[in-house]
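so im writing up the methods section and need the NAD(P)/FAD-dependent oxidoreductase record in one place, dumping it here so i stop losing it
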Amino acid sequence: MTGDPEVYDVAVIGAGVVGSAIARDLSGHAVSVALLDARDDVGDGTSKANTAILHTGFDAKPGTVESRLVRRGYELLSEYAKATGIPVERTGALLVAWTLEELDALPGLRDKAEANGYRHCEPVTAEEVYRQVPALGPGALGGLTVPDESVICSWTTALALATDALARGARLLLGHRVNSVESSDGTTTLHTSRGPVTARWVVNAAGLGADVLDALFGHRRFTVTPRRGELLVYDKFARPLADRIVLPVPSSLGKGVLICPTIYGNVMLGPTAEDLTDRTDTGTSESGLDFLLAKGARLMPRLLEEEITASYAGLRAAIDHDDYLIEPDPDRRYLLVGGIRSTGLTASLAIAEYVRSVLAGSGLALEPRADLPEPPRMPNLGEAFVRPYQDAELIARDSAYGRVICFCERVTEGEIRDALRSPLPPASLNGLARRTRVTNGRCQGFYCEAETGALLAAASASREGNA
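--- predicted struct ---
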């Protein structure tokens, strides 16, 4: 449905990758959907700082909702990426054991993978570990292969899902921070920083704020602990050192420090895992840098000889449960989608599918629509695929794609123009960077930020003038 109804059928709170996927899925049915977020862009919270691995779910806890949805999500997102142009590289992964205890744990991890329905893991010797990743530091005792692990663009995924939801008729309400809720006559009014939004059903996909929002609906089911993960991004010259994901044997805190190629052609080292109390603290720290450099010196000493392009940190919503919390409150027409860890990127479309079934089972009428638009075709940000500056035919049709603005990342004027004219244009330079890679390279915008900022300002002024 389109338009701005007085009462939406469903309000989805949180325009990260999970909330956007839910809004997209529900908008494929004859219901009106609003997608709210406190920030000024989609995918601007946890989603933008994801490690961007498309997981097979080989190491999830068997029998959990998470394991089932990650496995299903891998299939769904792989297909959706093909349809929309979200870049994916099937690099494969190698789980490396550095101690006898870790080596002894590998057969159990293989058994866990098979219990999760993934049967392609194979144990390998230390000799094979070094054949696959010659730059690893000394001391590896063996490994376990995971050939279907991949890297993906988390930025493009969130943007594609939200763009798709908009095309299907959902209403995107950015800058709408929910401060309180009020239920009456079968509806809930969300009192936000930009006015009230009323809906018959509310879906809480608020990530780091999900427990706070859950409390507004009278629940005390869980507590979110912001877990900061700091990462180092190495220059593209480092990419030959790591052509696949190098994983540690996982611990109770997560997957540990990994070495991972990125879809943009870099190599990433991290993340740390530090529990905080401040849900906004995405700053990097000296201790985090020292920790990662020490880990890197052990895992891959040659990597530390390469230039660091950037360091950044993201916050994950760690909770005091060992599974996703997707629980309805039919009396209040409210659904919690909480505790979605970093696997939420992979599981996003499956979570949306599951949410739809839970809502339907709780009384929401969901009649599939027959008039759905084609999914959006997203611009390619992947280094392994043809970019506009390399496309002679495209440049011949439009010379703006031959004029490079950001030389570090080879971003052209045409790409920036397209992003500024897109259905979901960026509200900031950071938003433009997530759509194009501009300013994300070695100089971190030193040479291109002024011109890029001028283009952004001109586009914003034009939109305001036409409003």
